[in-house]
Specification:
The complex is a heterodimer of chains A (about 500) and B (about 325). Chain A has helices at about 1-10, 75-90, 95-110, 115-125, 130-150, 155, 180-190, 205-215, 230-240, 255-265, 290-300, 320-330, 350-370, 400, 420-425, 440-450, 485-490, and strands spanning about 40, 45, 50-60, 65-70, 165, 170, 195-200, 225, 245-250, 270-275, 280, 310-315, 370-375, 390, 410-415, 435, 455-460, 475-480, 490. With about 500 residues, chain A is of the alpha/beta class. Chain A has 2 domains: about 40-275 and about 475-490, Aldehyde Dehydrogenase, Chain A, domain 1 (3-Layer(aba) Sandwich); about 280-460, Aldehyde Dehydrogenase, Chain A, domain 2, CATH 3.40.309. Chain A has a 7-stranded mixed sheet, sandwiched between helices. A 6-stranded mixed sheet of chain A has the order 8-7-6-9-10-18, sandwiched between helices. Chain A has a two-stranded antiparallel sheet with strand order 1-2. Chain B has one domain: Aldolase class I (TIM Barrel). In chain B, helix 5 runs antiparallel to helix 14 (about 290-305). Chain B is globular and about 55 Å long. Classes of the chains: A alpha/beta (about 500), B alpha/beta (about 325). The interface of A and B includes residues 11, 12 and 22 of A.
Chain lengths: ~500, ~325
Amino acid sequence: MAEELERQRERAPAQFGGLDYAPAPEATDHVSLRADHGLLIGGRWVAPASERRFKTINPATEEVLAEVAEAGEEDVDAAVKAARAAYAKVWSRMPGAERAKYLYRIARILQERAREFAVLETMNGGKPIKESRDVDLPLAAAHFFYHAGWADKLDYAFPGRRPAPLGVAAQVIPWNFPLLMAAWKLAPALAAGNTVVLKPAETTSLTALRLGEVLLEAELPEGVVNILTGAGATGAALVGHGGVDKVAFTGSTEVGKAIQRTLAGSGKKLTLELGGKAANIVFEDAPLDQAVEGIVNGIYFNQGHVCCAGSRLLVQESIAEPLVDKLKRRMATLRVGDPLDKNTDVGAINSRAQLDKITELVASGEADGAQAWQAPCELPTRGFWFRPTVFTSVAQSYRIAQEEIFGPVLSVLTFRTPDEAVEKANNTPYGLSAGVWTDKGSRILELANRMRAGVVWANTFNRFDPASPFGGYKESGFGREGGRHGLAAYLDLSS
Amino acid sequence: MATTPVRLAEAGSGFLQQVALGPLLSRFAVDEVGANERAASLAKRSIKKESKVAALRLAVAVMDLTTLEGADTVGKVQALCSKARRPEPGDPGVPPVAAVCVYPSLVTTAKAALAGSGVKVASVATAFPSGQASLAVRLADVAEAVEAGADEIDMVINRGAFLAGRHQEVFEEITHVKEASGRARLKVILETGELGTLDNVRRASVLAMAAGADFIKTSTGKIQPAATLPVALVMLEAIRDFTDRTGRMVGMKPAGGVRTAKQAIQHLVLVNETLGPDWLTPEWFRLGASSLLNDCLMQLAKERTGRYQSGDYFTKD
């Protein structure tokens, strides 16, 4: 059969060499980069009292993009005081309908400046422009629009209660969706009447800082949102500050636990959105070609830097071989490289530290005895890159099946029965998300009930909507973001 | 799960006995939402500059330039054949099209007008476009076209029988048409706009390929929707799995509704990323269209000169 195929292929005239995609880079000339940035405190950009700064780079080229301030304890104190003043004098007294106007305005400005934000997000974070353009920006605007709608309807969102804001919220966000996570955090907090001190991640501060410009452009009252750039020490100082009423953190489980220890007994409210090791379960009756797309989207979207990534593929044994073959063929078509190219599917790893972590875990997988296969793509010479990787022959006990890799690395495990699938899916300290692929509706409903995961996707993966609550079980954290559940996390509903 | 594979296995027909239709071919589930998303994401590929020129030339080279009107005349077909041989006299980089597609009564005319050019003559047959005639009449239609010299036969499947679940009947009819086509290559039109679901598109694709189709083709062009991207994607995936399983390549022809160069390039991208470059030749891929050619020529002229020219600078044939 192979020979026949070979013969047929030779009949094809040689002059048709397929279809090459010329580079199609998104222009960057409309994004003006400032050499250095201050901190947004009390409605003004101020130099850090700490006088410390650090460089932020483009992970795809390792070029320095700008210098960013590193907020110290004095800066944290000033920001929390500014937030407290804005809360007491302005924001908590303002009618919801008035707060909504600001949120709508922010949403519209984000839409108007979407291209600029998308390019900057890609430059600073390494994610493909098609994702920042088609996912991050539209969703960020959608979160502001959605929560703007709730601002004057809080009494109706929680019938029989008298919802009241909590006060000053300290929000610490991760580097994988820098702008989107800022939107997830800010929109419900502001809609509910809280003021905020936001700390973006160390490696990806630029879009959060530009969001600060948008807030000023929208004439948000001074101090309602304060933005402090910095690393772990800044975050620790912020969440530990006595003037904070509520802490919201998205990031690693390790840091989440540290924050919870810090906050114990302080009376501060806390929500945590932490790591994950999601199972993407494919049954033999699944629509296989779409399942392959879902698997690829589940783990290679945003280079796998997704807390709810479908990093464990659980496939029914009867179709394991054809499915993995299809998956590898599909992976071979992934276009890895310049994140600004509109045809790029997989971009740069966010930082050298993350690249090292991925490399180390992949080595452990190979040492444990799993078989690695990597997409045969060429990688750029500069910057941080990792080939899309799939591990087969993975046992549940291997580190690559247990630990969050947070990179483009998939572990394939097999199961025989639905019960075994559920058992393996739940057999993890995490519980953020899961996927089920089957043509059988009743099985979807049954598995969704039995899965200990905050989000269960059926015949799709990595779909987000501001109206849909997102959050975890177990070591994936607690509290929800999005929907009415997300609003509740920023409200006192005790009376 | 569909009953088709069981019925196929019972058929005992020659081709089915030669190739074991494996588990992949017996799985028809297609998730429409997922297929639409994948097609939409591929449609966003950005094909610019030299890639665009190469893609547009390829689109011309794989085109089945088509006229299927009640008003077709000898003169009309002759004009179309002239265009097919040399679509753009001013640009030697523009190749001839792959084939001219006409009704059986005009095959002789097209054959004479295209003699020596390498451009094939394709003829629709089997009571095109409805297929609503007895098998004997449909086979006679095919025989006439083949006798007149058609290099390729574009048949329609019996959608009535397919939708009524008589898959066996559809399968056997295709094998008869295949036999009647002789050396002419057989393109099987599924008329996907009448099949209703992507599951059916996938099922009909497998059925046609198993019955001996050299090409599977989306539509007659007389029914909307026709060659949508999700439908083309599902057919391409069916071809890929069939070829993997049997070792036999099958060609693909989207037809109907492909009017702009942009759409043509989207179809080329779909083939490129689903089947790979082996299929991007006139041997294995065709675009059936009547008004697409001039838009491709206009885009090529724009790439050459940097300006768009009015429609009056392109011959309407």
